[in-house]
What does this fold into?
Amino acid sequence: MSLSFNLLKTSEKSLRLGRLTLIKNQEQNILLDTPNCLAYTSRGCVPHLTPDNLQAIPLIDAVSVTLEHFIDIQPPPSTQFPGGIHKFLNFEGYLVFFDVRDSGKLKSVSYNTDKYVSIYTCHGVRQITSDSYIKYMNIYKPDIFASLADKITDETPSLKRIKKSVDRTLKWLDNALSNEGIQVFGVLTGHNNQEERIRSAQETAKRNVAGFVLNGNFLENTSRERINMLKSSLDHLPSTKPRLAYGLGTPEDIILGVSEGIDLFDTAYSVKMTDAGHAFIFSLDLKNDLDSSKQQQQTINLWDTNFRNDVQPLLIGCQCYSCQNHTRAYIHHLLNAHEMLATVLLMSHNLYHYTNFFKTIRESINQNTFFQKAEQFFKVYGEQKMEETKNSTIIYN
Ligand SMILES: [Zn+2]
It folds into this structure.
């Protein structure tokens, strides 16, 4: 198995098009064009979707799985299953990225030490050491895993605590890299301290990592401020390796993140919106003559009684299964009837739409129209929404 990342195009500022190539064997290659997203999973499933539903969404090639969802029993029973995590979770055709913590619900934990990270599970707090994590990775055999990281969940940590977090994370990264066989992404820490963010980035970049993970979950600012904070890390990374960022889920987050050279995002935001009964209708391909004096909506709320008799699809022109076969009125009815099919249809549409948004971004970078389209996007949807979306962290129990 081999993994490589190639930059296909770099243009203004930090904007870039790339391709992550995973060669699994002679018969199976996975190509992931970037910017792109990894499908968020909870307990190894994309929420609301069966593997068949997921396969019907054509642009999803990669999923993100977290140990946090399996570790309530140690060792996890799934480690007894032969064939690795791809086979166990029905993800054989996908690139599987593994991390310890759930990027969508980073709850604060009692404490981490030099030896272990504490995580909450449905059966209480569990401790993960760097060695036990590597042991599980060798059994699960994901395509990539993020190194164990001492992520700070306090809002106002001391400088001493931040430095300790950087030191521990680097130590655990070295341990992960000493285990050959599975590609490792180095996790960048440093919380809100610029000097420590730079130190973490520079030190991680010196190591033989396959890529980098940045965390925007705890930076409680506007999208633009959070991206600027991440920029202090991004500026010190080599351009030749992919960068994955958590906590950036809104279209504004993605546009600004892509502008600064982030290649991979997750889809936790689309789960959050699905759970709230919303369907995505935002677009990067906006007509120039669209009335920007009236702020456009990015989503529609299917709980709204106005949709009771609306026989249009969720989004006119959308080619997803839900829009091709069902109406807003039907999904509104399903929500009111508390039928799980409502969120199945919403999730199918939202993921389809989200992945197509990334496709549109890639096309616009290729055609040198990205910044022009991004400017029009902010004009039409307004920047105040970015103030509202302070944090993409979701609580997903
Ligand atoms: Zn649709």
Observations:
- Confidence is low (pLDDT under 50) at residues 384-397.
- The pocket of zinc ion is lined by residues 314-315, 318, 320, 322-323, 349, 352 (CB under 6 Å).
- The first strand starts at residue 2 and ends at 10.
- Residues 2-266 form a domain with the TIM Barrel fold (CATH 3.20.20.105).
